[in-house]
Amino acid sequence: MKLASYAAEHWIEPPGDAAEIRSAIDGSTVALASSRDVDFAAVSKHARKVGGPTLRKLTFHQRADLLKRLAQYLTEHKASLYDLSFHTGATKRDAQIDIDGGIATLFAYSSFGRRELPNDRILIDGAPVSLSKGGSFIGRHVLTSLNGIAVHVNAYNFPCWGMLEKLAPALLAGVPCIVKPATQTAYLTHAMFRLIVAAGILPEGAVQLICGNLGDLLDHVTGQDVVSFTGSIGTSRLLRDHPAVSVNATRFVAERDSLNAAVLGPDAQPGTPEFDLFVKEVAREMTVKAGQKCTAVRRILVPDALVEATGQALSEKLARVVVGDPRADGVTMGPLVSLRQRLDVLERLAELAPETERVFGNPEAISPVGADAAKGGYLGPVLLRATRPDQAAAIHSVEAFGPAATIIGYGGLDHAVELARRGEGSLVASIYTYDVEVAAELAFGLAPYHGRLHLVDRDSAGESTGHGSPMPGLVHGGPGRAGGGEELGGVRGLGAYMQRTALQGSPNLLARLTGAWSKGAAQVTANEHPFRRAFDVIDLGETLQTASRTITLEDIEHFAGFTGDNFYAHMDEAAAKANPFFPGRVAHGYLILSFAAGLFVEPAPGPVLANYGLDSLRFLKPVSPGDSISVRLTVKQKAPRNAQYGEVRWDVEVTNQNAETVATYELLTLNALTEKAA
Ligand code: NDP
Fold first, then answer.
1. Residue 376's domain is classified under what CATH number?
2. Which of 340-344, 655-659, 671-675 is predicted least confidently?
3. What is the span of the domain harbouring residue 191?
4. Does 364 qualify as catalytic in the annotation?
5. Measuring CA to CA, which residue among 429, 457, 93 is closest to residue 276?
């Protein structure tokens, strides 16, 4: 199979002398790859001139729709990918994590886009910032799509998920992508990419693929671009220090070596559910993808007294692992991706040897099921134990990227934290305890050094997503050695591909620019009640100022009797007076809300279909019997939902007879479109 690159809507075949990519199973040639004939300047130009402008014209909802359709298409056609996936050394279960996990990430981002982002091209970040006494000059942050390209340099271990987890947030943010898979498993990325192109869903220039090396692509990056890398520290440094990347301050996101820990709490003695969960998860983490996972557990931290028991329990589990051709019956762990990677792991194990003793496994003395041990990257699981953890250095810095991990004994919890921190920054750590205080001490000791903490106990284990699985809605990345990058994390993930800008100006101008009204911007009074105005007709700033209504003691007592809310602040003068907040009996907050609705509602059937809820409700001043309240209702924001209706966010302010604000909130209604607009 020749792996063509996809550049400027053309497939560029590799030349005759392209590099051979060998199967992890038996060393046979699976594919040929070379990007020598790719014009990288043209690739960069195509993304900038065609892909970027087209994507940026779409709203977040339209881009989310593309992701969903793409995910559906890939789901329908994914079956063809599994056979190919075996050649990477992946078992069927490993392939599901890669292929199905990748597609699930697309679905998740499509959903974040539709549920959490506006049907717009810009994102408002936070509330208006007051900058002047008179209120005529304010500030507001917005995020806009970078006008550049995203270069995604991926690792070999997740050819599909690695591509899709980077594509999803970038495309949703409106940035075109150039995918450069690791050559060793590029045939699987290539096969999925062919499906993406065949689907014909993404606009021209939105995605391109480089099979082979990166050529001079980085010479063409600018300050509007993002390079997102997953792989080794050495390559990360090389790319980050590329002159164009450093001179242009091109955004660089790195996810790289990580010596992740699993920490067993002192309470989790053998016989407790937490001990069993720990052993099961560590064994799984060591062997899924033959340990070639950036999140795999490398350091197993247990109380000194439990080193022996942990070693025994893990050895029993690891003894059941069946290494072999992932296509053969009964095989639970496939080979490493290549003979080279196998050699690399053996070299790393040799570096760990002076600081450790072997508890389980002789990696080279295995007979893989259905395979020739000399032809594929076969390696048995290896469990080590640190002999002098405090004096050791390699166990905290050398990542053997295979089915290997080291048990490290600790004294107290602060010792456990100190040892884990010696990894100098990791993607994830797991904590196994049923003791809240142990969990707190470990979690907050480890948090500054980790991107994710996985807390496991008997209550959550049944539904836990596992130590090693990055979730689309949660941050994936870690400080220090792990690269300092942050990916995924729901809509946070779009931040890497968008520029945050502080806008300063009049409230009125900023309301028009951002589509979000704020206090101080113009208020418009239409000829008709705003509840008679359909979604497509009603405008930002349209305001209703109501008449006032006096609240009597009878109102308060009636409300208390009717609702059953006889709280002393409303019903007991002496008790209310004794309360530092109230002058005496006061109106219920809910009474104020109800009367406010009574003042602003227009009762006849009309475009307002439903009250959808309240946000940011605050009661700011008590309302005493005899006080009069009135309401200002202003259209703050509009968000289209579908062809029938949209969501109107109203700014509501309730004031008393002295023009003091007694309550503020945002009211959400669903408003129908006019028949013409629908
Ligand atoms: P590399 O850093 O060598 O490769 C990662 C990516 O960078 C690949 O796409 C590779 O392409 C590309 N690349 C390599 N050299 C260059 C270069 N000079 N210019 C541009 N791109 C380049 O990592 P490996 O995949 O070989 O893995 C090596 C080690 O890295 C592992 O043993 C493991 O320790 C660590 N690793 C860590 C991961 C993590 O997420 N924490 C994930 C994967 C690996 P090509 O394949 O074409 O060379």
1. 3.40.309.10
2. 671-675
3. 2-121+148-256
4. no
5. 457
